[in-house]
Amino acid sequence: MKRGIGKAHGKIILSGEHSVVYGYRALALPIEAVTIQVSLEESSGPTFLMSELYQGPLTAAPSHLDNLRQLWQSLQEDHSDRANFLIRIDSNIPAERGMGSSAAVAVALIRAYYDFYNEGLDQESLLAYADLAETISHGNPSGLDARLTVLNRPLSYQKGQSMEVFYFQTPYYLLVADTGIPGNTKEAVAGIRQALDSEHPSRHLAAKAALEELGQASEDLYQHLSGKAPTSLKAIAQSMQASQINLQTLQVSSPELDMGIRSCLDHGAAAAKLTGGGKGGCFIALMPTQKEAEDLGQSLVVKEMIVDYWLIPLASPEPS
């Protein structure tokens, strides 16, 4: 039986979540430990979706899958395609955790569709469709998740500017920790926009200042990792912690994120911050060594502060 296959992976944001929407730099890494695969087979009935989140006709999928429903509609309309399909989604990317699951499933679905019809898929078209799905998911996304998933390279990104593939090297490790509670990027983005548009000058000024400081922290981290400023554990940690302080000011953190972050800082982490949209989801901790990162992850699971974790080197060396 003819089948189309598409694959994609997750991501984490090192710095610049939310401020990237307003033109500041964001730094992000692909994380290949979490992946997604979409397979397509033509069927006789209505297009049917099989996934962990939902099984049933795509047209009847719940609202949190509007991105897939409208993306699929656009793909078929653009190709004058009226065929029905069975769409299978297999993923170990936690949904709504700031790890790029919505962008990854969109990219995997687009790739599977083009693979089924043996059509060439250029990067521009892939990103255009992925951006459509991300706009439906998040309202006013930065575009970073889609680009990181498509390029599979670490990125330094500023809206309206060319993306920069970002290579760097440190001996340190990141612990990526999942609180088990879905985040809410759309709510967080809307809350910041509401604060900026507030009729109260003090609230507008506070949000504006926090975004500026968040942007500066991301710029400082870029300078440290790129070797343009000292690449010490202390310097990297200061930039990461400044990000978390301003994310809290913007009210995009949450009690469980704050609890996990405090515990990390109390048990050997040089820095810890949320990653992604916030209001739940994941946080990251900067650790001096892999063993210390592993020990901390196990400890957080035992304490039931998180449900899962991954370790990644804080490094992305340029391919030889």
Task: Give structural notes.
It is a single chain. With 320 residues, the protein is an alpha+beta fold. The chain folds into two domains: 154 residues, Ribosomal Protein S5, domain 2, CATH 3.30.230; 146 residues, Alpha-Beta Plaits, CATH 3.30.70.890. The strands form two sheets. Strands 1, 2, 3, 4, 5, 6 and 7 form a seven-stranded mixed β-sheet that branches. The chain has a four-stranded antiparallel β-sheet with strand order 9-10-8-11. The model has no long low-confidence stretch (mean pLDDT 93).
Largest sheet: 7 strands, mixed
Number of helices: 9
Secondary structure: helix percent = 40-55%
How many structural domains does the protein architecture include? Answer: 2
**H/E series:** EEEEHEHHHEEEHHHHEEHE
* CATH A-level architecture of the largest domain: 2-Layer Sandwich
Anisotropy-based shape: globular
CATH class of the largest domain: Alpha Beta
Overall pLDDT metric: 93
Q: If you compute it from the alpha carbons, what radius of gyration comes out, rounded to the nearest whole angstrom? A: 20 Å
Structural class by sheet pairing and helices: alpha+beta
Count the beta strands.
11
- Cα(first) to Cα(last) distance is 40 Å
Low-confidence stretches: none
Can you tell me the CATH topology of the largest domain? Ribosomal Protein S5, domain 2
Which range does the strand content fall in?
A: 15-25%
Per-chain topology:
Layout: E1 4-15, E2 26-43, E3 48-50, E4 55-57, H1 66-78, E5 84-91, H2 101-116, H3 123-138, H4 144-151, E6 155-157, E7 164-165, E8 173-178, H5 185-196, H6 201-225, H7 233-249, H8 255-266, E9 271-275, E10 282-287, H9 290-302, E11 308-313
Parallel strand pairs: 3-5
Antiparallel strand pairs: 1-2, 2-5, 2-6, 3-4, 6-7, 8-10, 8-11, 9-10
